[in-house]
Design brief:
single chain, alpha/beta, Urease, subunit C, domain 1, TIM Barrel, 2 domains, 9-stranded mixed beta sheet, 8-stranded parallel beta sheet, 35% helix, 23% strand
Length: 433
């Protein structure tokens, strides 16, 4: 497919040329061939898109999510993380079936695409359902597979053969849209010997690690009491930082701990909405950035956010971390996310040679006019519902806010049936038995 987008303003996320006015983008197959203001030669085009009144920008990259948790949206709210997770979420997750994971992921992907997310990082369990959903919908994803058994299963084991089988089946599949990391949920959830084994497995097979790190004050005090060292030191000595590492949250960090993350080139997924909703606190993003830590943005799961709208994350991050420029906030949601997922130079920038993951926003809305600063308009005024067109890997997945091949209504209906089955077993806010 050869696509030409013309007459459009472009936010590139390229620090050398961040904004192009009245430009054009030419896509050939899955790759951006040129970005310019004048056509350099005669083109053969299969699809011409008139960008007047719109802005193009890189597809947003959500670097921390649990997509099947759309099924648990608006459940067990107004609780601190430990109560929410151990007394409500994990017990109901034990009742999820493999097909539930698929339907919850389909709903999440539908929501993400409609609000401009073209790539997401996911960690959960029964991950084949998520990989199936990614393959069918056309989105891009980094799927972290956990070799250590989920807490709801009871016995804690490290299943290396099953993990390797998953990697062989999915890594690089769906025309390269699927990549894999290893999930190690957190240092407080597992025995250190098993964390070491999982980290060694990641190193052996050239995989990154996706984890939760210092999300709550409880973890900050609990880990040293139980393990004798803090979470960062435990991750360091277990080998978790010997491979590319994406650490979600990092709310309660000392200067010394941030220095370790900087030295070990750990990327941070900042989940401002989830952190506020679960009363976890606010990460020291400015201090991380001053140390050269790569900070990206994530939504977390829909059970703790309660949506997957990255425009809200940009907006809130800009308000909370006042002083961070709008251009940097956009880069956190695009090129920084690509770096965090090992996709630097592949996606996250509108530039020749990059994969064509692009979104178009309709600026002809009262809440977006007048445009005195384009980047500020995106960060402070734009909504996920302003996304008009979504292109991933050169394929148009949505245009004029209509999906080209996704059955949105059917996805919602099937997810609702799963939710009704799960919560039909509820009594007084908890599962019977």
């Amino acid at each position: 497919m050869r696509i030409l987008i013309e007459n459009i303003d472009i936010i590139t996320s390229d620090s050398e040329n961040p904004i192009i006015k009245n430009g054009m983008i030419y896509i050939e197959d899955d790759t951006i061939k040129f970005v310019c203001t004048e056509i350099p030669y005669m083109l053969e085009v299969d699809r011409l898109i008139d960008g007047r009144g719109k802005v193009a920008m890189p597809g947003l990259i959500n670097t921390h999510s649990h997509s099947p948790m759309t099924l648990l949206r608006n459940y067990a709210g107004d609780r601190a993380l430990e109560d929410w997770l151990f007394n409500y979420i994990i017990p109901i997750e034990a009742h999820l079936e493999p097909e539930d994971i698929y339907h919850g992921s389909m709903l999440a992907i539908c929501e993400m695409l409609k609000s401009g997310t073209t790539c997401f990082a996911d960690m959960y369990f029964m991950m084949d359902g998520i990989a199936r959903a990614v393959t069918e919908t056309g989105i891009r994803a980094n799927i972290a597979i956990g070799p250590i058994s989920h807490p709801s299963s009871g016995e804690e084991i490290v299943d290396e053969p099953a993990t390797l089988d998953f990697i062989k089946r999915w890594n690089g599949r769906a025309d390269g849209r699927i990549t894999n990391f290893i999930e190690i949920h957190s240092v407080y959830l597992y025995k250190e010997e098993n964390i070491r084994r999982a980290a060694a497995f990641a190193l052996k097979h050239g995989l990154g690690i996706h984890m939760h790190l210092l999300e709550t004050q409880y973890e900050m005090t609990h880990t040293p009491e139980v393990c004798g060292v803090d979470s960062v030191e435990l991750a360091l000595r277990s080998g978790m930082f010997d491979v590319p590492n994406l650490a979600a949250h990092c709310v309660h960090m000392t200067d010394a701990q941030m220095d370790v993350l900087s030295t070990k080139h750990v990327s941070v997924a900042h989940n401002i909405t989830s952190n506020l909703k679960l009363a976890s606190g606010i990460a020291r993003v400015a201090e991380m950035q001053r140390r050269g830590i790569n900070v990206s943005l994530g939504t977390d799961g829909a059970a703790s956010n309660n949506n997957l709208n990255m425009f809200e994350e940009m907006h809130l991050a800009a308000l909370i971390h006042n002083g961070t420029k709008c251009g940097e906030i956009i880069r956190m949601a695009t090129v920084n996310g690509a770096k965090a997922l090992g996709l630097e130079g592949v996606v996250g920038v509108i530039k020749p040679g990059f994969k064509a993951d692009i979104i178009l926003l309709d600026l002809q809305k009262p809440h977006l006019q007048p445009i005195n600063d384009l980047e500020a308009d995106i960060v402070y005024s734009a909504q996920g519902s302003d996304v008009d067109t979504v292109i991933v890997n050169g394929e148009i997945l949505m245009h004029n806010r209509e999906f080209t091949a996704i059955d949105e209504k059917g996805i919602m209906e099937r997810a609702l049936r799963v939710s009704e089955r799960l919560f039909g077993e509820m009594q007084d806010g908890r599962l019977k038995g």
